[in-house]
Amino acid sequence: MNDIEKLIQIMGRLPGLGPRSARRAVLHLMKKRDSLLQPLIAALDDVHRNVRSCGICGNLDAADPCAICRDSARDAGALCVVADVADLWALERIGIFKGRYHVLGGVLSALDGVGPEQLAIAPLLRRIEAGGISEVILALGATVDGQTTAHYLADRLQGLDLAGGRLTISRLAHGVPVGGELDYLDDGTLIQALKARQKL
Amino acid sequence: MNDIEKLIQIMGRLPGLGPRSARRAVLHLMKKRDSLLQPLIAALDDVHRNVRSCGICGNLDAADPCAICRDSARDAGALCVVADVADLWALERIGIFKGRYHVLGGVLSALDGVGPEQLAIAPLLRRIEAGGISEVILALGATVDGQTTAHYLADRLQGLDLAGGRLTISRLAHGVPVGGELDYLDDGTLIQALKARQKL
Predict the structure, then answer these.
(1) Which pLDDT does position A27 carry in this prediction?
(2) Counting one residue from A and one from B, how many pairs have CB atoms under 8 Å apart?
(3) In this protein, which residues make up the domain named Toprim (chains A, B) (predicted)?
């Protein structure tokens, strides 16, 4: 296998790129050596050398602990549990939540063989047992696996023997997405939206 | 902008990847540092250092002239003109054509401002004027721009004053794609297929 075929094969293993689009991407890189190939190599190298997982929350950052865990202006008493770093980024983009995070590294999945041991659940329990956290938001996807994980975590958290009083556990609201038409909504969402109707 | 954001921005400039899929790809790379990120950096580096354009045909290879141009078992008298290296690879995959290639680097396009000067047309004419080539296959896409380019090239080639006799110029056949249903075929293709019908 020559150098180009090897590169195409590796690129094809990225999510969202198949063999065909990997070939297209590689040819594009060859056409834009100075403006794209070289900067891409440099950027990958920088990330490889500089970026690590935060030992506390699992976020990706140039420093460990990460900028969010180090930020003393953020509320250390509120912990938002997410499945992936991408979810953490999504929540940071809206900029509403001012607490800290905990990245599980996935959700429980019987089908994919993901049990509690494969996720950062033990470190989560240790963080909460260490005290100082009064609210946990389970910000997991509204999928079967996401909700299974949320229920499992809620059970485990409620079973903790906490010295410092009660722990508030919540999940994200389910309902009609903003901009959504009722007509196009699935039944499950509509049921949730009706049950959780809010007084005006 | 931090290292990760920079990498996501550069990855998002690859064809087939938008900002969202670039983010996903980068997170995937971070999860598979040893099995994907490191091999990707090495493969990009190898390609950057080793692969170059063939000075004769425009193919990408570790050597210049490329393996196809150096292969004396291939018919130097037959030249297949393609728009891009990807087309050359597609033809090599079927393994039927045993001549040499000429990569134009695109097709004429009034809309995108691509004129004959932007393509490797002058080098193509020089190759043919140098003699030894008896057949030219214009293997360009059956798009408006591809066919415009093929007609333009046919005109230029027929206008050449060749010492060594006649030059056969052909294009790929148009017709019903193998496995194609007539019912789903566009009118243009059906007209071409009917006009070029073949005796059994």
Answers:
(1) 92
(2) 125
(3) 77-177
Matching CATH topology for B3-50 and B75-171? no
Question: pLDDT, tens digit, for every residue of B167-178?
Answer: 999 998 888 888
**B158 is written with which tokens?**
């027929």
Of B2, B14, B37, B104, which to mutate for an interface test with A (greatest number of A Cβ within 10 Å)?
A: B14
- Whole-number Å distance between alpha carbons of A88 and A68: 11
The CATH H-level (homologous superfamily) assignment of domain B3-50 is RecR Domain 1 (1.10.8.420)
A164 pLDDT band (50/70/90 cuts)? low
Give me the CATH code for the B75-171 domain, please: 3.40.1360.10
Structure tokens at A194: 């009706």
Q: For position A125, what pLDDT does the model report?
A: 95
Of B14, B27, B43, the CB nearest to A10: B43
A78: left (phi over 0), alpha (psi -120 to 50) or beta: beta
State the Cα angle at A66 between A114 and B4, rounded to 5°.
80
The verdict on A93 touching B (C-beta cutoff 8 Å) is no
Domain ranges (residues) in chain A: 3-49, 75-171
CA B178/CA B63 separation, integer angstroms = 36
B47, A7: Cβ pair inside 8 Å?
A: yes
A46: nearest CB among B3, B21, B45: B3
Owner of token pair 């297209």: A24
**Domain range A3-49, its CATH number among 2.40.50.140, 1.10.10.60, 1.10.8.420, 3.40.1190.10:** 1.10.8.420
Which chain B positions have a beta carbon within 8 Å of A86's beta carbon? 23-24, 27
**Which residue type sits at B104?**
L
Beta strands in chain B (DSSP E): 52-53, 60-61, 78-82, 100-103, 135-138, 168-171
**pLDDT tens by residue, A42-59:** 999 999 999 999 999 999
Spell out the SS3 assignment of A49-95.
Answer: HHCEECCCCCCEECCCCCHHHHCCCCCCCEEEEECCHHHHHHHHHHC
Q: Is B16 helix (H, G, I), strand (E, B) or coil?
A: coil
